[in-house]
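Annex B. Sample input.
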Amino acid sequence: MAAKKKKQIVVSRTTGYIIIGFFVLVAVGTVIKSNDPKEQARTSMISVRDACRESLLKTLTDPGSAKLDGDQQWHVEQQQDGTFLVQPTGQAKNASGGYMDGTWDCVVQKNGMAINVVSVKLKSESQGKP
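Annex B, continued. Sample output.
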């Protein structure tokens, strides 16, 4: 039986330059995007919301039952002291097993890349649907 020939992929020099150029453009675009103040603010809000979500779930009686609204629906506001007030909303089970609608106040302090949740408190609640 004859030996199988390996297929060789031949890339022309021009194609090689195009591929390299594409990767350079992607890398430069990523660096430029990361220096964009609007993009940095958006990324900062996402990380602040994520920190609140994690801390809030830790305070609940039954974290697995939580039906929180989407992060983008939460009110986020930077306070005069530099902290962020995030107000998650949604449903969670209370100690007696019933669902409640709630709004929480989550205060977050951000120092560079470090994010510290200062407090998470239930602001308001009402009887929810199961």
